[in-house]
Amino acid sequence: MAARPRVVAALAAQLRDLDAAEEAFAGAAERCLSLAEPPDDYAAWLFVAGKRRALDAIRKQAAEVRSTEALAQVSDMADILQLPDPIPDERLRLLFICCHPALGAEVRAALALKVICGLPVDRIAQLFVVSEPTMFQRITRAKAKVREAGIAFELPPRKAWPERLGAVLLALELAFTAAYADAGGELSADLGEDLGAEVEHLALLVAELLPQEPEALGLAALVLLARSRKGARLDGEGAMVPLSQQDVARWSYSRIEYAQLLMDRAQRIGRSGPYQVMAAIQLTHTRRAFDGVVDWSAVLRLYDVLMVLRPSPMVALSRALALAQVQGPEAGLAALDALPAERLALVRPWHVARADLLARCGRPEEARAALDAALALGPPRAERLWLEARRAAL
User: Fold this and answer.
1) What value does the mean pLDDT of the chain take?
2) Domain total for the chain?
3) pTM of the prediction?
């Protein structure tokens, strides 16, 4: 539901407890569904209902009487959401609050994905390439630390924004990764909003608020370039279309041009970083729309730089695929098999990449087994249709 981030942000500011805010919102949303007539203002109704639910819970515990009395003085949502705020978006405000430096960068990002974007824990675990129980424990511990450390649910002064920017950008990157992996929009349907469009909005807003931060500009460019291909990602049957086979005439050239503008602005600032490199990789792929080819040697060099700036198994996986384009599938498969297979076996791209390279190496039986492993991980419908078609072609 689109009102979720706004209401959770307001409840968290009052309750000083992320779990309590989420539970209060969930209870209010469930009650809202049972109403005979929908409220005129969903956000205000959900806030008031959620606050009352939280107050009832506090009263039942017969504790913190003073806190209860203070909360009871808040009469409506306007007192919370219409205060002057240098960040004109409730979701982005809560994102900066969740990304407190007392928490580790990855933990901050995971917490933000759970609280702000409402992503289920299993999806967050996939993004971090860890098991679901491990991620659940991390998020639970992060919420407890926020509560026990008395971290203020208030927007920090502007001078403190840069120290939280890395975690904010990481959360936005991972949220968009989740949205982009779901080409058919099933995740957005479950969440009640277009998650990709929301991340694009937030990434552009961060770039606008911090125009001298080149990495903020780089992430905005990265999201724009990926979003530029939205209209070409599904075929007539609803199956996912890989980047190399997309009809470039269906790409959004206005987004590509805006991304190039942001990249040029970041380059003039002169501080390079991983998001600018990732955007440069996407920009290199975009050249196919203009000259019909992809400079894979340039892509490989950019992945080499990214492995220095921000090494990870997923970056190494993408580099192996680029290497296969330059030196052949055998070289790419050797690089892929050198990676930590036990960890990467949790994510579909690992199996899909192996299937592609195994097939190109003339090993169709092993390629089919790799596709079976990818299908066993429960891909969304659009990706499943594409994987099934690839398996049938083998």
Assistant:
1) 85
2) 2
3) 0.79
